[in-house]
Amino acid sequence: MKRLIGSLAVIAFMAVATSAAFAAEGTVTRAQFTSAVLDREPVDEITTIDSNTGSVFFFTEFSDFEGTTASHRWIYNGEVRFELSFKIRGPRWRVYSQKTLPSEWMGDWKVEVVVEDGTVIAAHNLRHSGS
After folding, report:
1. Interior angle at CA 111, CA 65 and CA 43, nearest 5
2. Which structural domains are found in the chain, ordered by start?
3. pTM greater than 0.85 (yes/no)
4. Which of 12, 72, 83, 93 is 20 to 30 Å from 125 by CA-CA measure?
């Protein structure tokens, strides 16, 4: 019985250690809202858009998350309105998602960057105003 409890404790410790090591390895080196992406790079950094803005982009650069799936989760009034998943295929990987925000969806938006286990690893806010 002691041997079984000891084995279970070792397995539990290994699972926690592996999870912590995975979380410590990868980083989000950049994450931002931008008005456009050119050659896989954001052209600016924005925090507010108005009702005349066409599309808005959310850009993320990952380091050391190769082989992982991550998502951009667009949230308005606490409700997920759009989610796009990406397979990270290299040690440095840049991705973006694009959304057109209708004028009736004015207010505060948030994009969460989420990895496959559901952990939010970055979040940024955007204000959608009337003018």
Report:
1. 80
2. 27-128 (2.70.50.30)
3. no
4. 93
